[in-house]
Amino acid sequence: MAARGVRRVGNPLALALLLLVNLALTFAYAPLSDASLRTIPSGGSDFDIHNGALLSPILIPRVPGTPGSAKVQEHFVSFFRDQLPLWTVEWHNSTSTTPATGDTLVPFSNLIFRRDPPWAKTGDVSRLTLVAHYDSLYRPEGFIGATDSAAPCAVLMHVARSVDVALSRKWEAEGHGGDELEDVEETGVQIVFLDGEEAWVSWTETDSIYGARALAESWASSPHETNSVYPNPLSSISLFLLLDLLGDANPRVPSYFQNTHWAYQHLSDVEGRMRKLGLLETKPRMQFLPEKDKNANQFTRGFIGDDHVPFLQRGVDILHVIPTPFPSFWHTMDDDAEHLDLPTVRDWGKIVTAFVAEWMELDREMALGLKGREDEGKDEL
Ligand SMILES: [Zn+2]
């Protein structure tokens, strides 16, 4: 970051001032500039339900352990391999019986795509963790689950793609960070596609969130190497941002948790600013995230059962982005491609991208847009 500049300064006072500025820049959560917000892409036809590159391959039944599930896994893996090769892929596999399948062990595969600062040790990185489930309901047969959660998965693919160049640019500019300021926090981002969220018969503690339960347990019990900043992958999660049931028009997403209300406020702020700048397609009467001014005494202990629960129980900070009420067609055959409101899906893509770009402190890099990157590429040739 400013490390290279620091070395050129001879005056001790100026050096101290620069270090202070540098510290402030490092730790401040700064909103994206309007210029950066304007560069955030909508994804356009990639969200087309018939042949869009991101969404359409997910709009099939994808019950755990079936060929549809395998196809969607392949869609994620090939997308990152071909378009975002700097993201690592990790499979997390488990098996379980279910009340619908008797003694048969059903396989559940979570997929984790991750980008850390290239110089950072695995155990030293705190990670913004973006989560959606990709499995679909076992019954009714043929259920698609377009909002539950095909669209949220496609939104996360779009987010990854939209911040990828800016991340490279930032980390290339910083070089080996932390040599002058050793306590600078290393910040990475990971996208977790969870399997087995749905109950097979009816929602209970043991018949639901199969993939999330296995992953939380595994991450909590896989220690990082000694002297790591974070003892295990679970403790490396700075925020668990879970998207679910998104893609219906006019969603109303409350702020569920007081301890992460500050993060909700950032997400809501980003939405409000993008609306004012005319950058979103939808024109709802209320914001998607309307509870920015919720008071501390308005929070209750109630929450919606979902993939975050085993992480919440282990003390992870959760931002649950799920509408209340649920879409009217929730868990019916009408939760299909045709019932998606694509402007809403694309707006979610933009809002979450902006939030991630702020979290990862990519303002300067986003403002350069994608064009600069292409020019950089030409220079190298
Ligand atoms: Zn569901």
List the helices and strands and how they pair.
Blueprint: H1 3-8, H2 12-27, H3 34-39, H4 67-83, E1 88-96, E2 106-115, E3 125-133, H5 146-174, E4 186-194, H6 210-220, E5 237-243, H7 261-276, H8 309-312, E6 318-321, H9 342-359, H10 363-367, H11 371-380
Helix pairs in contact: 5-9, 7-9
Family: Belongs to the peptidase M28 family.
Protein name: Peptide hydrolase
Domain Peptidase M28: 127-356
Q: From the alpha carbons, calculate the radius of gyration and give it in angstroms.
A: 21 Å
Euclidean distance between termini CA atoms: 25 Å
CATH homologous superfamily label: Zn peptidases
What is the CATH domain class?
A: Alpha Beta
- In which order are the strands of the major sheet placed? 1-2-4-3-5-6
Helix content: 25-40%
Look up the CATH topology: Aminopeptidase
CATH architecture: 3-Layer(aba) Sandwich
What is the H/E order? HHHHEEEHEHEHHEHHH
Runs in which pLDDT lies below 50 for 5 or more consecutive residues are 1-15, 17-27, 374-381
Structural class, please? Answer: alpha/beta
Identify every distinct bound molecule in the structure, by name, code or SMILES: zinc ion
Shape designation: globular
Percent of residues in beta strands:
5-15%
Annotation field: number of helices: 11
**Mean pLDDT level:** 90
Largest sheet: 6 strands, mixed
